[in-house]
Amino acid sequence: MNPSKRTVLLWLLGISIVLFGGGMLAFYFTRNESICPNGKPPVSQRSAVLEPTEYRCSDGVVVTKG
Q: 0.70 exceeded by the pTM?
């Protein structure tokens, strides 16, 4: 049984809407997370290929995220 073109397009539309909604929910629940402990964005960052990224905060603290 071959599905019609309309059925396939509706499934793709539904999957796209679900994925978009999931992305919006993920953004909503993580919108207040900050890398720096003082809540401000980092001043600079340094990364290498195989090393974790180091972020320098405005108060001088260095935070490593891997």
A: no
